[in-house]
Amino acid sequence: MNSNILIDTAARMVAPGKGILAADESSGTIQKRLNAVGVESTEQTRRDYRELLFTAPEIENYISGVILYDETIRQSSSTNVAFPKLLEGRGILPGIKVDRGAKPLALHDAEKVTEGLDGLRERFVEYRALGARFAKWRAVITIGTGIPTQDCIDANAHALARYAALAQEADIVPIVEPEVLIDGDHDIDRCEAVTVRTFDRVFSELKNQRVLLEGMILKPSMVLAGKQALRQSSVEEVAEATLRTLLRTVPAAVPGIAFLSGGQTPEQATAHLNAMNRRGPHPWQVAFSYARALQNPVLEIWRGRAERAEAAASAFTRRARLNHLARSGKYEPGMEKSA
Ligand code: 13P
User: Fold this and answer.
1) Are 90 and 60 in contact (CB under 8 A)?
2) Most informative mutation of 163, 175, 290, 296 for ligand 1 (most atoms within 8 A of CB)
3) Which single residue of 133, 167, 262, 285 could bond 14 by disulfide (Cβ 3.0 to 4.6 Å)?
4) What is the pLDDT, as a whole number, of residue 30?
5) Which atom of ligand 1 is nearest to the CA of 177?
């Protein structure tokens, strides 16, 4: 493990004003996203769509890194440049999703544990050769009657820490992603309690596995009322509860936090990020690592039509720029109309 490489890469990932594009949808997820806008999911359409994102104008000013999927890190642009190389050429770090998905946790109804540790050391060696500088592993925690159990939190936190240690051994910065799901009718207080319990456990396991905190990025969910809750929280409530949670659980040695959007609308995800940065400075950079909140407006315009690729790419640049403004608390909801 080379600490300097890890510290330097992590700092670049959460450089002021910048955030990460998650474009690492698994085959099943990207099929869902493409089908939703009337596009068949083939190797070619997936390539075309990802190329549209990676070649969008000016994004190197707002996007520090892109998380790729196994298929994508091996693909090339229509001009025959390997995607990791194309991104590096723009000063954008290529990353790779390495988990193998959240699977049912045995003997635990409705709870999941993320798989993918077997053979991971060897896969990191290959991904590093393909150009990956950082990685991602997502764990999911579900809120419901009687869940999450401590067993589920423990199993996921342990796997996250084992993954993070293997990543650092290969000089790859681990994005540690414990996602408390937005699904359910729980209130924001319940979400906060579960999130604190989860992050406490995650950092305790990270320390047990000797993970260098300065060389990792946390990718958390925001603290929100459940999607089906009767009362939804205000932007200020979300910012306050999320920051309180992070301040209580995330050591200041961690260089950055890069939120997932988790089913929020693009506008909500940007407004929440903005409200948190307006309350700064914080011990860590407060950044983004969105998939849907950056991509949904792009897919809506593109719909697989080559003649709309340019307009779709501009929509990505615009969303990236609004989140760039939210990185320093300079976003205003009024910009949604004018931009
Ligand atoms: P969303 O922003 O769509 O939640 O996706 C982020 C991500 O990478 C999930 O693992």
Assistant:
1) yes
2) 290
3) 285
4) 98
5) 10
Is the CB–ligand 1 distance for residue 30 below 6 Å? no
CA–CA gap between residue 93 and residue 89 (Å, rounded): 9
Contact 157, 197 (CB under 8 A): no
**Contact 290 CB / ligand 1 (< 6 Å):** yes
Q: How far is CA 222 from CA 174, 206, 239, in A?
A: 19, 21, 8
Query: Distance from the CA of 24 to the center of ligand 1, in angstroms?
Result: 9
Cβ of residue 260 lying under 6 Å from some atom of ligand 1: yes
Mutate to test the pocket of ligand 1, among 224, 260, 298 (most ligand atoms within 8 A of CB): 260
Return the structure tokens found at 273. 């990020």
> Distance from the CA of 136 to the center of ligand 1, in angstroms?
11
How deeply is 60 buried, as exposed, middle or buried, from its count of CB atoms within 10 A (0-12, 13-18, 19+)?
middle
Question: In this predicted structure, what is the pLDDT of residue 339?
Answer: 52
pLDDT at 337: 87
What does the block give as tokens for 239?
């910012």
pTM value is: 0.98
Q: Peptide bond before 281: cis, by omega within 30 degrees of 0?
A: yes
Q: Which helix (H) or strand (E) holds 121?
A: helix 120-129
If pLDDT is split at 50, 70 and 90, which confidence band does 338 have? low
Active site residues: 177, 219
Q: Is 40 exposed, middle or buried (0-12, 13-18, 19+ CB in 10 A)?
A: exposed
Ligand 1 atom having least distance to the Cα of 290: 2
Ligand 1 atom index nearest CA of 262: 4
Instruction: Give the Cα separation of 260 and 250 in Å (integer).
Output: 16
Q: Is the separation of the CB atoms in 22 and 33 below 8 Å?
A: no
- Looking at the domain covering 3-338, what would its CATH class be? alpha beta
DSSP β-ladder status, 256-259 and 19-22? unpaired
User: Rounded to an integer, what distance in angstroms lies between the CA atom of residue 139 and that of residue 258?
Assistant: 15
